[in-house]
Amino acid sequence: MSNVTVIGAQWGDEGKGKIIDWLSNRADMVVRFQGGNNAGHTIVVGDKTYKLSLLPSGVVQGKRSIIGNGVVVDPWSLLEEIAKVGAAGLTVTPDILVLAENATLVLPLHRELDALREEASSQKIGTTKRGIGPTYEDKVGRRAIRAIDLKDFASLPAKIDRLLAHHNVLRKGFGATEVDAGALLNQLKEIAPKIVPFLGSSWRELDAARKAGKRILFEGAQAVLLDIDHGTYPFVTSSNTVAGQAAAGAGVSPRAIGTVLGIVKSYTTRVGEGPFPTELKDATGEKLGERGHEFGTVTGRKRRCGWFDAVLVRQTCVTGGVDGICLTKLDVLDGFDEIKVCTGYQLDGQTLDYLPADANLQARLTPVYETLEGWKETTRGARSWAQLPANAIKYVRRVEELIGTPVSLLSTSPDRDDTITVQDPFVDR
Ligand code: GDP
Ligand code: IMO
Ligand code: MG
User: Ligand 2: which of 222, 297, 305 to mutate, judged by most atoms within 8 Å of the beta carbon?
Assistant: First the structure.
């Protein structure tokens, strides 16, 4: 068995898309296992840029791609994305894409509720307003519409009634108009023939792949600090983003997820609200944002930026189950005179070496920094250790030491090929 699971080990946008695309060259299949179109995974190949939200990043290399049962799928958005990549020259047909029949559907009413809540709340989460939270709530509440339901028009009205019995009460409370059951039924009937051809069984596909000795790459979205259990609750997404979710969200044994690669940015960013101990609201933060082009892939929002937080990544490597990391965007640090790394927190006169679970305490942490010398040379586009300046190597080694997890890969530009292999994640450890 030589499978690989890729997850984000900070607050998202670490460069998972780039690395999954690069790794998918040697995989037979790529499987998304959670999240939805709140994700934005960028893949740059030469002069072409693909921004994927629901499609597994394997589609760029034409790999068999599965949207697992753990994903929440907005069917209209999925079709739009297929059309968009189609216009860019990538044909996604049921020959390469399988949508798990037991995946949950995101409906317009979920997007609306997400937006209504964000607008009404005095304590905003800063969601992507894609309806992700409300859909996972309905899944757990056992009233959701699933992909397979698009095959059975006879049973749909009863399922819609059950769903609307919940939602129309909520909508009334928000002063929104009620959803008409007949109109929703018609919308679903209209989209069904375009979605049904993609339906299949994630667990059966993967079981057959395992028996045939195929290599599977599991693609995570979001990141451990956005995990519903292990993240900075309540400023999180509504799914488990840790590696263990790959098994539940795809229908495989926990032993089948293989080597877990955590993607880690060489500094820290976050989109949306919530605590961020190393956030820089000064010229240095601006510089990181400009150099790293830190604008959200999905919403276009400016990402908050700060120094690398080794305390957080040490913790997410443990809670996320990470075996090795890929350190991305090293090139963004080129030219800084000095680079800081957070090695602990001060809180009420005490030093902490972990992130406390209480959001109020998280908001009051003062980072303790270690300062490293920067480098003047460029690392952009480097493809081997030998091309890295001595201080860049020192930085990477120090990060590795502080987080207690080895660096398996390094990324030095958005381009697929600007990647340095230290330890191949596809080789069994
Ligand atoms: P994801 O959500 O983890 O897939 O990451 P996003 O695609 O949302 O954001 C990462 C951004 O950084 C994208 O614009 C990538 O093209 C870009 N990127 C990835 N790796 C590198 C790198 O090593 N250097 C630079 N400069 N940009 C990178
Ligand atoms: P990728 O896969 C960064 C953030 C949102 C918000 C919180 C909850 O591209 O790394 P949601 O819409 O999920 O209910 O929003 O989570 N968020 C992300 N931040 N990258 C992502 O995905 C994200 N997906 C959600 O900004 O703070
Ligand atoms: Mg992203």
Answer: 222
